[in-house]
């Protein structure tokens, strides 16, 4: 039994970032680059979060002006020989390991500290300020103090613990669908591509070069659906396996593809820990069925094999804080601009719904964008906290646009700058005006 007030303090920082995912890593890197003493606390063994542990690849296309950290990540990937955004594809693509390595190198080079394998367990709040957080490690529970905290856990874990207002899901409390992703090797990608093209599969438009992308969504007239139906007839697949199927080649790994599926459509509430655990066991079965089906029925997969399954669930949406501003679909439609902008978004409203299928709002023309204000990162309850990443203050629909990796990197980048500027001015993050961050 722990007595929280007697727990040993193992560090004191200007900024502690909890969660070293896409947003958290960017925030930590930028704050450290600007001179803050920064620690990232991460429960897994890599920076990159969903992009690494949930195998989410590639970063979606975003044609806005990006911040310096996004460009530095891309440049460093290229310096490592990673084929990314090379004219054949517009995606910033890499293996999970390359992305994690680049983020880690950047953060350490700028003087940041990382505590891996440490789970945020509780926090101590006094006078609207988080004084310390408690983390569970293999050695036991420790406390860490900081002037500022950044919640980049994806699930708003620190914000909720500290008493920040929050919500989750759509108007009925249903969340976006979660996936358990996987990767396969030994695929004859050219044969698979030729087969898809022979069906006039218009969802496979990337016909140049080595890169190939393919998909099938049930009851939407995808040309691949009859093959999947045959898989059900033959007993390889169940009806639920047909909800959503998508895969991309992995540059620099010939014969390998990454799968943005299966959708765990049985799970409606991503905020229920038992449902999350059940989603993992369901996902394992679904991946086994999909792999068996592809090997037996899909041209090009005759000698294919499973390389790995994700070590984290791919949660698209769960909790969102209710901050000083709630970004909405109206802001998306208006292409809203704000004086305290932290990032520009141009991805469409991309909802994978278990109850309503895919909900996509009108896409922007290239060059159009909306802005996300700093006020979506701060709240009324805690003064020294920023919340970043997919759990910022938005409506359910707006979250479906801001959640892509390029946007959360830019958001993290600006949040890191805000931490450094607020530290220099000795201003609380909640009082900081949030101007000139991009
Ligand atoms: C299935 C799926 C497919 C997607 N497809 C694409 C795509 O193709 N392209 C694209 O650009 N975007 C895609 N996205 C969206 C995008 O990947 C995510 O929205 C984005 O990566 C979220 O970043 P984040 O930093 O907010 O959270 P995360 O990357 O999830 O980071 C959160 C971090 O916090 C850590 N953490 C959580 N709780 C604790 C705790 N208690 N203690 C310590 N650490 C903790 C986690 O381990 C993790 O590292 C997809 C998302 C999903 C789920």
Automatic annotation (TrEMBL):
PANTHER family from the UniProt entry: COB--COM HETERODISULFIDE REDUCTASE IRON-SULFUR SUBUNIT A, FERREDOXIN:COB-COM HETERODISULFIDE REDUCTASE SUBUNIT A
Lineage, top ranks: Bacteria, Bacillati, Bacillota, Clostridia, Lachnospirales
Keyword terms of this UniProt record: 4Fe-4S, Iron, Iron-sulfur, Metal-binding, Oxidoreductase, Pyruvate
Pfam families: FAD_oxidored
Any GO molecular function: metal ion binding
Protein name in the entry: Pyruvate/2-oxoglutarate dehydrogenase complex, dihydrolipoamide dehydrogenase (E3) component, and related enzymes
Domain of life (superkingdom): Bacteria
Entry coiled-coil feature ranges: none
